[in-house]
Automatic annotation (TrEMBL):
It holds the Pfam family RsmF-B_ferredox. GO terms for biological process: RNA methylation. PROSITE patterns: SAM_MT_RSMB_NOP. Residues 139-395 form the SAM-dependent MTase RsmB/NOP-type domain. CDD domains: AdoMet_MTases (cd02440). This is RsmB/NOP family class I SAM-dependent RNA methyltransferase. Keywords: Methyltransferase, RNA-binding, S-adenosyl-L-methionine, Transferase. Gene3D superfamilies: Sun protein, domain 3, Vaccinia Virus protein VP39. The active site is at residue 345. The keyword NADP does not apply. GO terms for molecular function: RNA binding; RNA methyltransferase activity.
Length: 395
């Protein structure tokens, strides 16, 4: 496909997304009906689409439109202006290119805004209240860029330098990521990593560096019984198992999410015990309980940018209620010295500090052992971790 045809395809997909379709679904259905598109075309259309959703408000404003009146065409006009792509070379109307700009469209174009947070106003206000306007704007702008692609070296099977050496010889351009000791981040974007023999041998998993850093922040050395209470696909379960060398119990309310975990654990050489039924988890039986809580995902909105435009106050309140429920459920499972480690991939105080304060106010005898924030940076996503411990268990 020519560059203009890829932009026309992005316009088509974006129209579906602003009409309410989920971004991944809209891209998949476009790819299905566009058999002529090769892998590079699909990647290029995807890049256009994700970049436009991340910057939806800015690009709409360049095209002289509001966020409410978003359309694929105005978004791509804004995207081209922002990237200094001459509009007349793209909007030509020839073959599969989008049709030329009308006089009205041309007259509506304005300069790119410098301080648009590109998120709903109520969310930006909440971020600003928690971290101050300038930091909030810096975080919002960080979310408008593409996120890094990072691998986690399986330290049970190899070392980071050894893996880096093998992958470099296989043509993968990587850098050591300072956020986590097992993290290697792609310098040059490329797909197909999970087809490499190194992946099949279990030498690495795909995992954001902040997710890895959360696991690295936990002291697993004196913890024999480790529970990943919201295991999902098991990314953190495997990291916990690799780091501790111990059996990790994995649970999730939606057991279906853990369906690939046995196979992933086998590939990694990790010892994972899956517990589908919460009633079978041993009371007072765990020294480390990781809660990788369901959340807005605001710290990783670079990867799922439509989520930031869809989050509502009501949904956030629902998530907070679920997070509190999960915290409550884990208290009876913690051993006398046990730690409850509550994490979110969110930068919203409502899901982080507010939940910490709620826990401390509602559970007597518990205190904060450690608290960490990871902001959205070129190295990793935004994450939060607070570790609670019984006051009488402090050394
Ligand atoms: C952020 S995801 C976990 C991601 C996973 N830890 C990983 O690293 O790949 C949150 C998970 O919490 C699960 N969850 C939601 N409510 C829960 C509950 N009450 N008890 C246990 N798990 C729950 C969801 O099904 C979802 O898989």
């Amino acid at each position: 496909m020519r560059p203009e045809a890829r932009i026309a395809a992005a316009i088509e997909v974006l129209d579906e997304i602003v009409g309410g379709a989920a971004a991944e679904k809209a891209l998949t259905s476009w790819a299905r009906r566009s058999r002529f598109a090769g892998s590079k075309d699909r990647a290029a259309v995807r890049d256009h689409v994700y970049h436009s959703i991340r910057n939806l408000s800015s690009f709409q404003s360049i095209a002289g439109q509001t966020s409410c009146g978003a359309s694929g065409r105005s978004l791509m006009i804004g995207a081209c202006v922002a990237q200094e792509i001459p509009l007349d070379t793209v909007f030509t109307g020839e073959r599969h290119a989008p049709h030329p700009l009308t006089d009205e469209e041309r007259a509506a174009i304005t300069a790119p805004p410098s301080d648009d947070p590109d998120m709903p106003a109520w969310i930006f206000e909440s971020l600003s209240n928690a971290m101050g306007h300038d930091v909030a704007l810096q975080q919002a702008r960080a979310l408008s860029h593409r996120g890094p692609i990072t691998l986690r070296t399986n330290l049970q099977k190899t070392t980071r330098p050894a893996l880096m050496d093998r992958l470099t010889r296989a043509g993968v351009d990587l850098r050591e990521n300072p956020l986590a000791e097992a993290a290697l981040t792609l310098v040059q974007d490329r797909g197909g990593l999970t087809n490499l023999p190194e992946f099949q041998e279990g030498l690495f998993e795909m995992q954001d560096a902040s997710s890895q850093a959360v696991v690295e922040a936990l002291d697993l050395s004196r913890s024999d019984h480790i529970l990943d209470f919201c295991a999902g696909g098991g990314g953190k379960t495997l990291a916990l198992a690799a780091r501790s060398g111990k059996v990790v119990t994995a649970h999730d309310i939606d057991a279906g999410r853990m369906k690939d975990l046995p196979q992933r654990a086998e590939r990694a050489g990790a010892q994972v015990r899956i517990m589908r039924d919460r009633a079978h988890l041993k009371p007072a039986g765990f020294d480390i309980i990781l809660i990788d809580a369901p959340c807005s995902g605001s710290g990783s909105w670079r990867r799922a940018p439509d989520a930031k435009w869809r989050l509502t106050r009501e949904r956030l309140a629902e998530l907070q209620a679920i997070q509190r429920d999960v915290l409550m459920q884990t208290v009876p499972l913690a051993s006398a010295q046990g730690r409850i480690c509550y994490a979110t991939c969110s930068i919203l105080a409502e899901e982080n500090e507010v939940q910490k304060d709620w826990f401390l106010a509602n559970f007597d005898g518990w205190a904060v052992h450690q608290e960490h924030h990871w902001t959205v940076t070129p190295d990793g996503d935004g994450f939060y971790l607070v570790q609670f411990m019984r006051e009488n268990a402090f050394d």
